[in-house]
Amino acid sequence: MYAIGIQISFSAAHYHPGVDPACGRLHGHNYRVEVTAESARLRGGMVTDFLELSRWAEEAVRDWDHRLLNETADFRELPPTTENISRLLFQKLSRKVPDRGWRLRQVKVWETDSCWAAYSEEGGP
Fold first, then answer.
1. How far apart are CA 125 and CA 111, in angstroms?
2. Which H/E stretch holds residue 50?
3. For the chain, first and last CA: distance in Å?
4. Which H or E element spans position 96?
5. Catalytic residue among 34, 58, 83, 111
6. For tag attachment on the chain, is the N or C end more exposed, with fewer CB atoms within 10 Å?
7. Tens of pLDDT along the chain (125 residues)?
8. 115 is known as an active-site residue
């Protein structure tokens, strides 16, 4: 299986009511997003074009960049945790993938240099 990955970043603020004071207060992050795609076969020597994958990822976060995530349409009913951000990004990107001969493996979102959450639709624990 071949795998490729890209990274993009965006900046946003959020808060988590009902949790410890630090996360419950309004605060921001410079998020780093890693997107991994895979395929058993190469087309034109590639899984897919890095630039195309990057463009789709940038489009997927456009409505979140430099915004308060709690006020965006995606997070009005859903807490803007890093886990939920990674799942929503995976779902948004998956809509672009059908019939392209490769699949999205994982979306990983880094909230800080040492904390991340990832989502894939592979079997889990």
1. 23
2. helix 50-61
3. 22
4. none
5. 111
6. C
7. 999 999 999 999 999 987 877 788 999 999 999 999 999 999 999 999 999 999 999 999 999 999 999 999 999 999 999 999 999 999 999 988 767 789 999 999 999 999 999 999 975 44
8. no
* Strand extents, DSSP E, the chain: 2-14, 27-39, 67-68, 103-110, 116-119
14, 16, 23, 59: the catalytic one is: 23
CATH H superfamily, domain 2-119: 6-pyruvoyl tetrahydropterin synthase/QueD (3.30.479.10)
* Predicted TM-score of the model (pTM): 0.92
Question: Alpha helices of 5-49 — where are they, by DSSP H?
Answer: 21-24
The one catalytic residue among 52, 66, 71, 121: 66
What residue type is 67 in one-letter code?
R
